[in-house]
């Protein structure tokens, strides 16, 4: 029995070593291409690119640029290492699971990767440009009609912190949405229970849309409406499935 425990310990240690070396390799690679990575992150924000004729960042500390690059490299390396850790965990647990358990765990891992890609696409293509356009709209004031005028200059470290916060908000929100949808699909009880909690789901959708969107009523209504339509569509499919089984 002690030998078995040691075998598991050795396997866990080896897998963690693989994850660590994956992190180190990603760290070295990302640090070598740090300027390219930062350029790609900035280049996705069309609102910021159109802000000035020559987009630029300001910094007020001599070491600020170095620490920003270091934080960016750490952030990118952690995301890759996290995916590697999930994969190694799946492979470690696969030998001790039944086939249907392994299938569900594999599906959960695939959904995580898919949601991660979708949330990243949503972040860089929709959320960041739209949020910048909304917040910078307060700067677009006419000197003739306004007493005060505003001029924005972006700091490099604040831009990166803003991007990372939005990234985690989108990632956690999209994972929560997937869990909610999977729970609705796998709901094994009668349809009455789904209808019973309809108001609760509507409230969750409104809170979710409020978190991931800027403080704009139209965007919140749009996201909430899409989620409600998806919820009602899944409920309709569940109703058809139940009627087919009982008939």
UniProtKB/TrEMBL annotation:
Give compartment(s): Membrane
**A molecular function (GO) term:** proton motive force dependent protein transmembrane transporter activity
Q: Which Pfam families match?
A: TatC
Question: InterPro entries attached here?
Answer: TatC (IPR002033)
* Family the UniProt entry places it in: Belongs to the TatC family.
**PANTHER family, per the entry:** SEC-INDEPENDENT PROTEIN TRANSLOCASE PROTEIN TATC, SEC-INDEPENDENT PROTEIN TRANSLOCASE PROTEIN TATC, CHLOROPLASTIC-RELATED
What is the recorded name of this protein? SecY-independent transporter protein
Q: Which organism is it from?
A: Kryptoperidinium foliaceum endosymbiont
């Amino acid at each position: 029995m002690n030998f078995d425990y040691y075998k598991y310990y050795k396997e866990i240690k080896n897998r963690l070593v693989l994850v660590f070396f994956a992190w180190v390799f990603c760290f070295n690679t990302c640090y070598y291409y740090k300027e390219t990575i930062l350029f790609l992150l900035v280049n996705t924000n069309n609102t910021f690119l159109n802000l000035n004729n020559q987009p630029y960042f300001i910094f007020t500390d001599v070491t600020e640029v170095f620490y920003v690059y270091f934080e960016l490299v750490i952030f990118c390396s952690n995301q890759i290492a996290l995916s590697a850790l999930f994969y190694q965990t799946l492979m470690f647990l696969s030998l001790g699971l039944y086939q249907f358990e392994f299938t569900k765990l594999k599906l959960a891992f695939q959904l995580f990767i898919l949601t991660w890609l979708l949330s990243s696409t949503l972040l860089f293509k929709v959320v960041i440009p739209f949020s910048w356009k909304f917040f910078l709209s307060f700067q677009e004031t006419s000197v003739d009609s306004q007493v005060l005028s505003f001029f924005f200059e972006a700091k490099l470290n604040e831009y990166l912190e803003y991007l990372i916060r939005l990234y985690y908000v989108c990632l956690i929100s999209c994972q929560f949405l997937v869990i909610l949808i999977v729970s609705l699909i796998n709901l094994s009880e009668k349809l009455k229970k789904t209808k019973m909690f309809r108001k609760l789901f509507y409230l969750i959708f409104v809170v979710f849309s409020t978190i991931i969107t800027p403080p704009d009523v139209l965007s919140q209504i749009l996201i909430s409406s899409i989620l409600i339509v998806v919820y009602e569509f899944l409920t309709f499919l569940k109703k058809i499935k139940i009627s087919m089984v009982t008939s």
